[in-house]
Amino acid sequence: MTFSRRAILCALPSLAHAAARLDSPLAAWRQRVTARPATSHRDRHSVHSYFNTCPESPDGKALVYFASTDPECHHGEVRVLDRASGESRVLASSVTVEDPHRTACQQWLSGGRRVVFHDLRDGQWVVVCVDLPTGSERVLARGRMTGWGQPGSDVVPLYGPHFDPGPHTGIELLNVATGEIRAVLTAQALREAYPEVLRQIYGDKPVSAYFPTLSPDRRRVFFKGATPLGGDFRSKQASFREGLFCYDLARKRFLFARMKWGHPAWHPDSRQIINVMNILIDSDTGAERPISGVPRFPGTHPSISPDGRLFTTDSYDGGKQHYSVVIGDLAGGDYETIHRFDNSQGATSWRPSHPHPIFSADGRRLYFNVSASRWTELYVAERAA
Question: Domains in the chain, start-ordered, CATH in brackets?
Answer without folding.
Answer: 37-382 (2.130.10.10)
